[in-house]
Every structure is written in C-alpha cells, then in structure tokens.
Specification:
By secondary structure, the chain is mainly alpha-helical. Helix content is 71%, strand content 4%. A three-stranded antiparallel sheet has the order 1-3-2. 29% of the residues are buried.
Length: 211
C-alpha cells in the first residue's frame, strides 16, 4: 500500500492553531511569542513563524512589531458584521446543498445535533462550538461550493475566541431548536422554510450577543 504523504511541520502547526482559534480554545487578547509556541510544539521557530503569518493573513491572529502574537478582541459591532456575513453565506450554501440532501445525511446531522444537546447540558463551550461547526459544515459540504465554504470558515475562525467567551456566560440559554427546524426543512425539501430557519439560527446568535 502507498504511504500517506507526510504533512509539513508548518502545515501541521497551522492546522492545530487554526482549530484552537476556531473553537475558542485561545482567548481574545491572549498573547504568545513564536518561541513560546515553538516550545509547546517542540519544533524550531521557522515553521511556527510561517504558520502564524498565515493565520495573521486570515485575520485570526494579530502580529505586533515586537513579535507578540495575539487573538483579536472583537467589539459588538465587529461581531455583528461577521454574523451578518455568516447569515448571507449560510443561506446561500443551504440553498445549494438542499437538492443533494439524502436520508443518511439527515440521520448524521441528527446525531450531531444530539451531541450538541449534550454539550449544552454539560455547559461545555468548546465542545458546543466544535459540534455546532461540525453540524453546519457537514450540511454545507453538500453544496459543492468550496470557495463559499472557505469564506464562511474564515468567518467562524475570526469569531471563535470572542464567541467562546459569550458561550461561557450564556451557554445554558442555548438550544438546538433551530437545528431541529433545519432538519425538518431538509426532510420536506422546503427551500423557503430552510432559508428562514437558517437565518433564524444565525439571528439567535446575534440576539445572544446583544442581550
């Protein structure tokens, strides 16, 4: 059997840091040094420098002139802007995905949604964010629109640290009601209903932010 190609060190570090940011495992404003990250990953500073530059280009990290690295602190206006963009992108992806939805996908989404309920009960904010993104990404992959999905993932990335703080405070008020409505719309193949509930799902995040 052919061997799987090895992932370059800088790519592995980039992916690990990117996931940590997206899922809120790095707090907004928390600062690091390239040397410190290199020590954590037990690598030289060169691949860390390359990985953090990529993340800075995506808006996930800020790089200061002194070499400090930090996750941005987003104010309400900035988060509202990003959530509005998320609404536009997710509605478009949902519309494109709908004709390609099948029973096995709906069953898979239902299982993920059950896991989200468990994270809410446990008040596990990181677990909630991971499963919530898994739910949406699993659905939107059916859209076969990789460029739009990549833009959406960048929005998730930029929001991750700040949304984690909000979920820590308010996760007990979250529900998967809108997800259940999304599943119902998928079963009925109802485009209008699907657009409405996807938009409502994003809006609920906005309401939590502004409450």
């Amino acid at each position: 059997m052919p061997r799987e190609p090895l992932v370059p060190v800088h790519e592995s570090i980039y992916r690990s840091l990117r996931q940590m940011i997206m899922f809120g495992e790095i707090a907004p404003g928390c600062s690091f040094t390239i040397r410190g990250i290199a020590n954590d990953f037990k690598v030289s500073m060169t691949p860390v420098r390359e990985a953090t530059r990529r993340l800075a280009a995506e808006g996930a990290f800020l790089l200061s002139s002194s070499g400090r690295i930090s996750a941005p602190e987003l104010n309400n206006d900035r988060i509202e802007e990003l959530l509005s963009l998320r609404g536009l992108l997710e509605c478009e992806l949902a519309i494109r995905a709908l004709p390609r939805v099948h029973t096995a996908l709906i069953e898979r989404l239902s299982l993920i949604n059950g896991s989200i309920d468990e994270m809410i009960v446990e008040e596990n904010s990181v677990g909630y964010m991971k499963k919530n993104i898994e739910f949406h990404r699993t659905f939107y992959l059916r859209s076969q629109a990789p460029s739009i999905l990549a833009i959406l993932e960048n929005v998730w990335l930029r929001c991750g640290p700040t949304m984690r703080i909000l979920y820590d405070k308010k996760i007990r008020h979250r529900t998967t009601y809108n997800h259940r409505l999304i599943l119902s719309s998928l079963r009925d193949q109802s485009k209008d209903s699907l657009i409405s509930v996807v938009r409502a799902d994003v809006t609920s995040g906005m309401e939590m932010l502004l409450a």
